[in-house]
Hints:
It is built from one helix and ten strands. The chain is mainly beta and 153 residues long. A hairpin with a 2-residue loop joins strand 4 (65-76) and strand 5 (79-84).
Amino acid sequence: MTLRALLMLLMTTAAVSAHAGGGLVVKDAWIPEAPPVARVMAAYMQLVNGGAQEVVIVGATSGDFGHIEMHRTVEKDGVARMEAQPELAVAPGGRVTLEPRGLHLMLMEPRRTLRAGDTVDIGFRLKDGGTVQAAAEVRATAPAAGGGHDHHH
């Protein structure tokens, strides 16, 4: 097993075991690699609620970014724009997907240059006072994928 394969296995195991907050699990968290000058990045993932109660995320933090906001991409009259989401609810037994051109985390003011293969720790604050920790892998993206999100500012 290569070191990269071992690290991927460990990260997958860590993501699956990131339980807390009434059964919320963060799966397949990733961040598209962006140019070193990018001041805004995005994160995508699956939020799965295996519990019997709704879980409401009210914020997120990371030591690698000045601040994080939850956004939804909305298209109106052929123009895509971002709408901040003050909270994000995951129904009991439900799943919410954060993906390009949909719900996503806006990672603002990076504190270090992130390269493909790096890991970013993200902490989610829940309405009930709990927290859930997740690790997101920085992944290389094709230039056409628009991974940088520079158009937000």
